[in-house]
Amino acid sequence: MATSEQRRRQLAREKFERQQKRRAEARRKSRRQALVVGGAVAAVVALLVGLALGGVFSGKDTKDGAADNPSPTPTPSAPQQSPSPAMAIDQKAKYTFALRTSAGDISFEMDAAKTPQTVNSFKSLADKKFFDNTKCHRLTTAGIYVLQCGDPEGTGRGGPGYTIPDENLDGLGKPNDQGQVTYPAGTVAMANTGRPGSGGSQFFLVYKDSPLPPTYTPFGKIDAAGLKVLEEIAKQGTADGGQDGAPKTPVTVQQGTVTKN
């Protein structure tokens, strides 16, 4: 028969083993939680980096600035290399930017009264055939829903060699508590590097309502036919099946023209 001292020691040992087991389980649980949280953080970071590197929310636009994320958000831009074009449009008129693409025609109306610098720049670039035979290099399918175009290099890093000021940033209403507004489906907005006045030639076409900070100049409205073309492009997803990348079905702007209405 065990003595009282032996019994006391046995109880103490069992208590110690229970404590060790609870501590080990707590450590395992903590590690599991850390992995879950870390994974979520990694996913968020990956999305934000993608947006930043994509030009929309400061996307991959290191030269001229993207939605960005339409948060829909970016990398440093290069020093301005040349002045923006002199004002040469009717600032009271409306203009149409017609994109003939490999996936179908997409046209949108631009109001020069609200975004004169943006419309003037796009008219100048289009007249020089700047957008002809360029790729729409980026499609996002979660969080924000945009197709990004306007980069002559097709990499997200190209631009016209100058930047233009932001305009019409209050055109989509007052930001919510998260500092965001809704960029409605059919909206066309400027991509940028995340810094004020860093837009160039890259823009994004919104095919589904997208919450973003009001830092991307909204300057166009896509017509119904063009929106259908955009939606069909989006249905195909990205080339690698991810949420942010090149469109699975390559989209080339064969010709981009701007005309006064």
TrEMBL record:
<keyword id="KW-0413">Isomerase</keyword>
<dbReference type="InterPro" id="IPR044666">
    <property type="entry name" value="Cyclophilin_A-like"/>
</dbReference>
<dbReference type="InterPro" id="IPR029000">
    <property type="entry name" value="Cyclophilin-like_dom_sf"/>
</dbReference>
<feature type="region of interest" description="Disordered">
    <location>
        <begin position="62"/>
        <end position="86"/>
    </location>
</feature>
<dbReference type="GO" id="GO:0016853">
    <property type="term" value="F:isomerase activity"/>
</dbReference>
<feature type="domain" description="PPIase cyclophilin-type">
    <location>
        <begin position="101"/>
        <end position="258"/>
    </location>
</feature>
<feature type="compositionally biased region" description="Basic and acidic residues">
    <location>
        <begin position="1"/>
        <end position="23"/>
    </location>
</feature>
<protein>
    <submittedName>
        <fullName>Peptidylprolyl isomerase</fullName>
    </submittedName>
</protein>
<feature type="region of interest" description="Disordered">
    <location>
        <begin position="238"/>
        <end position="261"/>
    </location>
</feature>
<comment type="function">
    <text>PPIases accelerate the folding of proteins. It catalyzes the cis-trans isomerization of proline imidic peptide bonds in oligopeptides.</text>
</comment>
<feature type="compositionally biased region" description="Polar residues">
    <location>
        <begin position="251"/>
        <end position="261"/>
    </location>
</feature>
<feature type="region of interest" description="Disordered">
    <location>
        <begin position="1"/>
        <end position="32"/>
    </location>
</feature>
<dbReference type="Pfam" id="PF00160">
    <property type="entry name" value="Pro_isomerase"/>
</dbReference>
<dbReference type="InterPro" id="IPR002130">
    <property type="entry name" value="Cyclophilin-type_PPIase_dom"/>
</dbReference>
